Amino acid sequence: MAERLSKLLANLPAVRQALVLSSLQRQLDAALPARFRGEAQVVALENGELRVLCRNGAIASRLRLESQNLADALQKRGLDVRRVNLKVQPANSRKPAPPHNKPPLPDAARQAFASASEQMEEGEVKAALQRLLKRHS
Predict the structure, then answer these.
(1) Where are the domains of the chain?
(2) Among 53, 58, 91, 125, which residue has the fewest nearby CB atoms (within 10 Å)?
(3) Closest of 116, 99, 98 to residue 132, by C-alpha
(4) pLDDT at res. 137
(5) By C-alpha distance, which of 137, 135, 133 is closest to 114?
(6) How many whole angstroms separate alpha carbon 89 and alpha carbon 51?
(7) What is the pLDDT of residues 14-64, one digit of tens each?
(8) What is the DSSP string of 8-55?
(9) Fold for the domain defined by 13-88
(10) Distance between terminal CA atoms of the chain?
């Protein structure tokens, strides 16, 4: 059963693309100097150009100096890489917004909405009122 599932998943385009990128990432990591492993992420390989995102400008600059050596090392590993294109994509430094805690719906409002919902014909407004009541019950 698990084998059949893995075969089915392997035929999905998104899964195939993920497997290709994962393989390219392993190849790049093997070709990178140890201090840069995990600092650069493969995005795509198209027409002999390997596109890579780096965590910061310093890493991208250093790897740009080594880009031809990287391309040569990847060619030796059997990949059709003629050029390595490095871009900077810093990790998201913004903190996520804190969760917004809504105050509870007063009982009088809940009863008024329930009464209005009961009197309405089926439709979008009635459905919205019912969802509101469900969230606040």
Answers:
(1) 13-88, 102-137
(2) 91
(3) 116
(4) 78
(5) 133
(6) 12
(7) 888 888 899 999 999 999 988 999 899 999 999 999 999 999 999 999 999
(8) HHHTSHHHHHHHHHHHHHHHHHHHS-GGGTTSEEEEEEETTEEEEEES
(9) GMP Synthetase; Chain A, domain 3 (3.30.300)
(10) 43
d(CA 113, CA 126): 10
- DSSP per-residue codes, 43-99: EEEETTEEEEEESSHHHHHHHHHTHHHHHHHHHHTT---SEEEEEE-----SPPPPP
Longest dimension (CA), the chain: 74
Angle in degrees, CA 36, 82, 60, rounded to 5: 30
Q: Extract the tokens encoding 115.
A: 């009464």
Residue 47 phi/psi, 5° resolution? 50, 40
